């Protein structure tokens, strides 16, 4: 299914994203945390070397993690959002305390680290990058990696820790997703694509592995590592995120300024929005599915509503605003 993309939303003028500024170079990776203590958080990786933590529903800046000396290629949060892990061009992967902003651990590699992830219990991390090597570190014994594995023939672009299945996944320029058993870091499965893999994420419920390669979006069954669905687009896809209800997904393009929403079942393009002034490198849905975030070459993060006009976070529709004003003025709300 390859069509010429056309804006299909009925009233694009009403779709007003929130713009989160602060980064000074391209934003290359975004991730929302799960809901914890009634809210959730957003972390961003940027080529300016300063990953940032934000309040998820509003995008309000919470803090910047200072310490990297090169571009940060990936940033992820632990399940409880108490720790962050980052991968950098300064040859390190770092673990951060999200409450204090302090570096808890810094793991030196032999080359650029492109991706990292943290275990469900927050005690171990996995890293990969231009060394083409996978490493596991135990934060309780941080002096040396507890396991290493080789197999990729070129740069590893994405790694995922899948604690439910006791595996880690890695993907990259050699056009393969590799699955590794955490017990001995032996390779137990692979999935091949026709082009270099530019992104890979695990869906919020752990059911699907989403990945992008060339103009194709893949949705793999996370239990079998077989493609449940693949959808062709008319542009090079940089990143994709599946809505928690599995009814739609958002995609960004490496040479495209448009944010595109698709129907998951049919692959039909539903909505197209423009807001960024540069290609979109990364997209991510919030854990409640109410918003999605996009990060761009233009150095900004934008937050978009899944249902434009709905009262949520900093978005409040006119009726809700009027009700609040009436409450302040002592005017009863009509029932």
Automatic annotation (TrEMBL):
Keywords: mRNA processing, mRNA splicing, Repeat, WD repeat. One of its GO terms (molecular function) is RNA binding. Signal peptide: none annotated. GO terms for biological process: spliceosomal snRNP assembly. CDD domains: WD40. WD repeats lie at residues 65-106, 106-147, 149-190, 273-314. Pfam families: WD40 (PF00400). It comes from Diversispora epigaea. Residues 314-335 are annotated as: Disordered. Belongs to the WD repeat STRAP family. This is Serine-threonine kinase receptor-associated protein. It comes from the Eukaryota. GO terms for cellular component: SMN complex. The keyword Cytoplasm does not apply.
């Amino acid at each position: 299914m390859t069509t010429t993309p056309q804006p299909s939303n009925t009233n694009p003028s009403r779709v007003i994203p929130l713009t989160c500024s602060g980064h000074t170079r391209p934003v290359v990776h975004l991730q929302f945390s799960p809901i914890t203590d009634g809210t959730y958080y957003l972390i961003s990786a940027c080529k300016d070397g300063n990953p940032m933590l934000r309040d998820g529903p509003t995008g309000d800046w919470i803090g910047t993690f200072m310490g990297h000396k090169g571009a940060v290629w990936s940033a992820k949060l632990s399940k409880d959002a108490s720790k962050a892990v980052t991968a950098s061009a300064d040859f390190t992967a770092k673990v951060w305390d999200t409450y204090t902003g302090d570096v808890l651990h810094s793991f030196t590699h032999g080359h650029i680290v492109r991706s990292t992830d943290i275990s469900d219990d927050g005690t171990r991390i996995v890293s990969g990058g231009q060394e083409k090597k996978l490493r596991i570190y135990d934060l309780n014994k941080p002096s040396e990696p507890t396991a290493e594995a080789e197999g990729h023939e070129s740069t590893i672009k994405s790694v995922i820790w899948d604690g439910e299945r006791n595996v880690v996944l890695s993907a990259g320029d050699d056009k393969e997703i590799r699955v590794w058993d955490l017990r001995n870091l032996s390779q137990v499965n692979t999935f091949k694509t026709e082009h270099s893999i530019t992104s890979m994420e695990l869906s919020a419920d752990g059911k699907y592995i989403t990945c992008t390669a060339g103009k194709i979006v893949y949705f793999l069954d996370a239990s079998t590592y077989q493609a449940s669905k693949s959808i062709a687009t008319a542009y090079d896809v940089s990143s994709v995120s599946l809505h928690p209800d599995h009814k739609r997904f958002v995609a960004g393009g490496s040479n495209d300024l448009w944010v595109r929403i698709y129907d998951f079942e049919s692959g039909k393009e539903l909505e197209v929005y423009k807001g960024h002034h540069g290609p979109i490198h990364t997209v991510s849905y919030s854990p409640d599915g109410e918003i999605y975030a996009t990060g761009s070459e233009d150095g900004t993060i934008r937050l978009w509503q899944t249902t434009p006009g709905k009262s949520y976070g900093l978005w409040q529709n006119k009726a809700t605003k009027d009700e609040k004003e009436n409450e302040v003025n002592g005017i009863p709300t009509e029932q």
